[in-house]
Amino acid sequence: MRVLNVILVIWALAAISCGCSQATTESESPSTGAAYLHITPRDGYTEVRVDDPWHPDKPMAQYALVPRGSIVAVPDSLTAITVPLKRCIVYSMVHTAALDELGCLDAVVAVADPQFFAPDDPVTERLADGSIASIGSSLAPMVEKIIAIAPDAIILSPEDGVDNAQIHAAGIPVVYMSDYLEHTPLARAEWIKFIGLLTGREALTDSIYETVCHEYCGLRDNACATVRRPTVLTERPYMGVWYLPGGASYKAQLIADAGATYVYGDNSDTGSLQLSEEAVIAHAGNADIWLLNEQGESSPDILADRMPHCRAFAAFPHGIYYCDASTSPMFRDIAFHPERVLRDMIYVFHPELRNGQPLRYYKPLAQ
Q1: Which of 91, 175, 196, 265 could form a disulfide with 202 if both were Cys (CB 3.0 to 4.6 A apart)?
Q2: Angle at 243 between CA 238 and CA 246, to 5 degrees
Q3: Strand partners, 231
Q4: CA angle, corner 103, sides to 44 and 3, nearest 5?
Q5: DSSP 139
Q6: Shortest CA distance to 46 belongs to which of 208, 200, 158?
Q7: Contact criterion met (CB below 8 Å) for 324 and 297
């Protein structure tokens, strides 16, 4: 994990688009195949290849997942990992949340960035009682402590230009979870199958993924059947730069699948846009809805203090909805349960579909 501001920026960076114009009927399924994850059953083990989006000429990693107690010869090109994992270190609350859902949190012996786990997160309780240790910052983990813990593997999200040479040199397998780089919400959710293979919960993760796909497609089709298409802006400036999802990004697809029009939806970038506040005001000042990710509670006065020009937007204050990242489970849920975030967005964009149901993540800025 990162410091919270970087986590919020990553929310704007995650990748790719689809939208209501491409919606299928509820009986059909969109393309859900993960672009960077390839699982192949072999004789006596499972081969998993993780592709490198920054260097597509070679894989990021190739693993041989060998059942515990088996003696299997695997190619030298593969990193052998004995499964199910009994002792693992996990860098991200996204992945500890998946392990908790699978009933495998006991396998987590240490985490990075413990200060960013919410008070009600089960990891927080285990950090307090000492059953889970801290290895410090994900940017500069305590390598000596990692070696002393002697985990079966370390599960982390890769970053371009960041290597783990010291950990590799110690002979500890590094499992690269590149789910956040996937092109669609359902493709990202499919990475739970990799976690299922690592934990011996393949049948459960297959069932979870099928349910997620079914619910996501049903919600999307209902939203796309609506007539009104509110225009939507996201995020706010951070250190003078407004990081916005590209028009072909992961979050742009969520907005489109929720039956709305993203203000930069005609852009073809799959990553992020880095714009000035003036440029966003000029292009998106008339957006109907403005979605924010904030640290702590917010209000019109608090937002105006943080961003003096917020009143230049037509959505201020009654069209603004924010997610309090300090308490909301959105960042734990988004990877493997995009249907939950999609439902919340639909309720914000199309309140007529709520039928009295509460919002799970977002709150109106103006009560």
Answers
A1: 196
A2: 170
A3: 261
A4: 100
A5: S
A6: 200
A7: yes
Q: What is the pLDDT of residue 269?
A: 87
Sheet with 231-234: strands ordered across: 261-262, 231-234, 289-294, 320-324, 362-364
Q: Domain residue spans in the chain?
A: 4-29+212-364, 37-184+193-200
Please give the structure tokens belonging to residue 151: 């985990």
Tokens representing 115 are 């200060």
Q: Please list the rounded mean pLDDT of every run of 10 residues in the chain (367 residues).
A: 40 38 39 86 97 91 97 96 98 97 98 92 96 95 96 93 82 94 90 98 97 97 96 96 91 94 93 94 98 96 96 98 93 95 98 95 95
Closest CA to 53 of 5, 91, 13: 13
- The C-alpha atoms of residue 81 and residue 111 are separated, in whole angstroms, by 19
- Which residue's structure tokens are 């000429």? 57
The CATH code of domain 37-184+193-200 reads: 3.40.50.1980
CA distances from 48 to 41, 60, 64 (A): 9, 11, 7
Domain 4-29+212-364 adopts which CATH fold?
Rossmann fold (3.40.50)
Angstrom distances, CA of residue 295 to CA of 5, 8, 63, 173, 330: 9, 9, 38, 34, 13
| pLDDT attached to residue 21 | 41
The residue assigned the tokens 């190619």 is 75
| pTM as predicted | 0.89
Residue closest to 198 by CA, chosen among 31, 15, 35, 37: 37
